[in-house]
Design a protein that fits this description.
The structure holds 2 protein chains of 2 kinds.
Chain A lengths: L21 H14 L2 E5 L6 E2 L15 E5 L2 E10 L16 E8 L6 E5 L12 E6 L12 E6 L2
Antiparallel strand pairs in A: 1-2, 1-3, 4-5, 4-7, 5-6, 7-8
Chain B lengths: L3 E8 L11 H16 L8 E5 L2 H4 L21 E5 L3 H13 L5 E9 L5 H6 L14 H16 L3 H14 L14 H6 L2 E3 L2 E2 L8 E10 H6 L5 E10 L13 H14 L4 H4 L2 E3 L5 H11 L7 H7 L24 H15 L14 E8 L5 E8 L1
Helix pairs in contact in B: 3-13, 6-11, 6-12, 11-12
The chains are: A mainly beta, B alpha/beta.
Chain lengths: 155, 384
C-alpha cells in the first residue's frame, strides 16, 4: 500500500467561564478583599476548621456553620521550587521561573492552603518554617485568592 | 452469584506520539486484538464501557468519538457506558455490570493521547478554579508537594525514590510496550534536571499515547473459552477529598481502605507473603513506595528500606512493576489497565522475557489512581 501522508489540524481552544464563588466562597473572598483577613469555618461535629470555608465537612457530612477568623501566619508544611516553563493560567503567558509553591497550615486551621512563597533558594527552605501572608494593597484587591501576593518567611 | 474473569486483553505499544493513529484508530486496534485474545467476536460482547477524559480529548462527551470503534453500534447497537477516570475504575464498573446478572461479557477500553493537548494546562485544569488553579499547580508541582511532605514526615530520601526509577526503567528493557527503558544509576537520576524540587526528570513518568482493552466475562462464559481465565478475586475503590489542602499528602487513607477491602474480599491476610506480583500506579518514583506502604506491604515509612532490600525487583519475593510501571509509559487513564494487563500476562505465564518465576505466579495486585496526588485508588486482586 502506498504510504499515506499523515496530517494534523491545529486548534487553539479558548472557552470562557464565569465561576460562582458561592455563598461561603463569596464571604471568604470579600473579607480577604475588604479587611485583608482569612476566615474559615468549623465543623460542629469533629471540630475541624476549614479554609476555604465550605458548605459541608466531607467526613462528617455536617454543615460547618460557625465562621472562624484566622490569623495571617502559619507553618510551611511542604513546598517546591518550580523550575520548568509553564503558561500562567492567569495571564496566558509564560511565568518567570523559578517560583516556589507552598503548602501552608495557617494558625488555627486544620487544612492546608496552597500559595506562593517568595523564596526560591532551596537552601533557605525547609518544612516547618513560619510564614506570613503578604496582601496586595487594598486598592489592588479584587476579591480573589490572588489578593494575597505570596507568603514570606518570618523566622 | 457468578465470578468475574478477565478473558481477553490487549494494549498498544506506548509511545510519545502515535502520529499514525487517531483516537478511534487506537481504540479499534485494541478492541480487535482483545477479541482475538479472548477468542470472541464482537457479536459475543453484550455491553461496553469506554474510559476517556474530556480535557485530554479536547471535546465534551469524549466517549462518543470512539463508540463505533469499540463496537457499540454493531448490529443495531449495544449498551455502552462511560467512565471518566482511570481504566481500573472502568474495569471495576464493567465487573459490577456482570455481577448485576444483566450482562455476561463486558468490553472495557481506555484511550488517551498526551501528545495532542498541553499536559500542563490539562492537569492544571483538574484543580479548583478559585483556590488552586490560578496558582498554576498541575501534575508535576502537586506531586512535588506530596513528595516533599512524604520525605519530611517519614524520613525518606531522594535516593530512595531514585532506586524506584532505576528498577522500573530497567524492568522496561524487557517490555516492548514500554516507552522509556534503560540502565540508569541512582547518581544519574539524582543529577537529572530538577523540574520541581525534590522531583527531577527521571522521577517522572513520560507523556504517552496509547490504548488498552480487557474483556470481562461471567463464570460460564469464561470456563467455556479455551484460554485460562484470570479471576477477579477482590476489588475496591475509595476516594478522599479533592481539595489538596484537606489532605495530609503524606497519607493515602483511600488506598489503605481500598486495599483492606480488596484483600478481605480475596481472603488475603498477609499480602507480602501471598501476593506474587504488584503492578501499581507509579506516576512519579516516590509513589511506588508511598502506595506500597499504604497497601500494607511494609510499615509506614519503610518504603525506602523495602526498595533497598531488593525484594521488589523481579527476582525478589515481591516483584513490583515488572512491566516497568507507569514511570516507563504513562498514557493517562490507560495506565491502570496496563497494570491489569501485565498482571494478566504474568498469571497466564505469557509475559515473555519478563515472566516472573520460577515460583508460580498465582495471585497479583493491579492498582490505578485518579485525581491529584492519588485522590482515589482502585485495588484489584487477580488470581489464576
Amino acid at each position: 500500500m502506498k504510504k499515506t501522508e499523515l496530517l494534523f489540524l491545529k486548534e487553539d481552544v479558548d472557552i470562557p467561564y464565569n465561576w460562582a464563588a458561592g455563598r461561603y466562597g463569596s464571604l471568604f473572598l470579600t473579607r480577604l478583599r475588604d479587611e485583608g483577613k482569612f476566615i474559615g469555618n468549623r465543623c460542629p461535629s469533629c471540630g475541624k476548621v476549614y479554609l476555604p470555608p465550605r458548605v459541608v465537612c466531607g467526613p462528617c457530612f455536617t454543615p460547618p456553620e460557625e465562621i472562624v477568623e484566622l490569623g495571617d501566619t502559619g507553618t510551611l508544611v511542604s513546598y517546591s521550587v518550580v523550575n520548568y516553563p509553564f503558561i500562567d493560567p492567569e495571564t496566558g503567558s509564560r511565568r518567570p521561573i523559578p517560583y516556589t509553591l507552598g503548602y501552608i497550615r495557617l494558625d488555627g486551621c486544620d487544612t492546608y492552603l496552597s500559595h506562593f512563597v517568595d523564596e526560591t533558594d532551596p537552601a533557605k527552605l525547609t518544612p516547618g518554617l513560619r510564614v506570613k501572608a503578604v496582601f496586595r494593597p487594598r486598592e489592588e484587591r479584587t476579591g480573589r485568592l490572588q489578593d494575597v501576593l505570596h507568603f514570606k518567611i518570618v523566622d | 452469584m457468578t465470578n468475574v474473569a478477565i478473558v481477553g486483553a490487549a494494549q498498544t505499544p506506548y509511545r510519545r506520539r502515535r502520529d499514525d493513529a487517531s483516537l478511534a484508530e487506537l481504540v479499534h486496534e485494541v478492541t480487535v486484538a482483545a477479541l482475538a485474545d479472548a477468542g470472541l467476536e464482537m457479536g459475543d460482547i453484550d455491553n461496553i464501557v469506554t474510559v476517556s477524559n474530556d480535557f485530554w480529548d479536547g471535546r465534551t462527551i469524549s466517549s462518543m468519538a470512539v463508540m463505533d470503534a469499540s463496537g457499540s453500534s454493531y448490529a443495531g447497537g449495544k449498551n455502552v457506558s462511560t467512565v471518566e477516570g482511570d481504566g481500573t475504575f472502568g474495569l471495576f464498573y464493567g465487573a459490577m455490570r456482570i455481577l448485576s446478572g444483566v450482562y455476561r461479557t463486558t468490553l472495557v477500553v481506555a484511550h488517551s493521547k498526551g501528545s495532542e493537548g498541553d499536559p500542563m494546562m490539562i492537569t492544571n485544569s483538574m484543580f479548583d478554579y478559585i483556590y488552586t488553579r490560578p496558582l498554576g499547580l498541575e501534575f508535576i508541582s502537586s506531586c512535588a508537594l506530596q513528595a516533599r511532605r512524604y520525605m519530611d514526615k517519614y524520613g525518606l530520601t531522594e535516593a530512595d525514590f531514585a532506586l524506584v526509577s532505576v528498577k522500573n526503567r530497567r524492568n522496561a528493557l524487557r517490555n516492548p510496550y514500554a516507552q522509556l527503558a534503560g540502565e540508569l544509576t541512582v547518581e544519574e537520576v539524582l543529577a537529572s534536571p530538577v523540574l520541581a524540587d525534590p522531583l527531577k526528570r527521571h522521577d517522572l513518568s513520560p507523556i504517552s499515547d496509547g490504548a488498552a482493552a480487557v474483556i470481562l466475562a461471567d463464570s460460564p462464559v469464561a470456563l467455556r473459552l479455551g484460554r485460562k481465565p484470570v479471576w477477579l478475586k477482590g476489588g475496591a475503590f475509595c476516594s478522599e477529598d479533592h481539595f489538596l489542602g484537606d489532605r495530609d499528602l503524606a497519607e493515602a487513607p483511600a488506598l489503605r481502605e481500598a486495599s483492606r477491602r480488596a484483600f478481605e474480599m480475596a481472603g488475603v491476610t498477609d499480602p507480602f507473603r501471598e501476593i506474587d506480583v504488584v503492578e501499581l500506579y507509579d506516576a512519579c518514583s516516590y509513589m511506588e513506595l508511598l502506595w506500597l506502604e499504604e497497601m500494607g506491604f511494609c510499615p509506614r515509612g519503610e518504603g525506602g528500606t523495602l526498595i533497598r532490600s531488593g525484594e521488589t525487583a523481579p527476582e525478589g519475593s515481591l516483584p513490583v512493576n515488572p512491566s516497568g510501571g507507569v514511570l516507563s509509559a504513562h498514557a493517562v487513564l490507560v495506565a491502570g489497565l496496563a497494570r491489569v494487563i501485565e498482571v494478566v500476562l504474568q498469571l497466564r505465564g505469557e509475559a515473555g522475557p519478563r515472566q516472573l518465576g520460577p515460583k508460580p505466579v498465582e495471585l497479583g495486585l493491579a492498582h490505578g489512581i485518579n485525581g491529584p496526588c492519588g485522590q482515589s485508588h482502585c485495588v484489584l486482586v487477580l488470581g489464576a
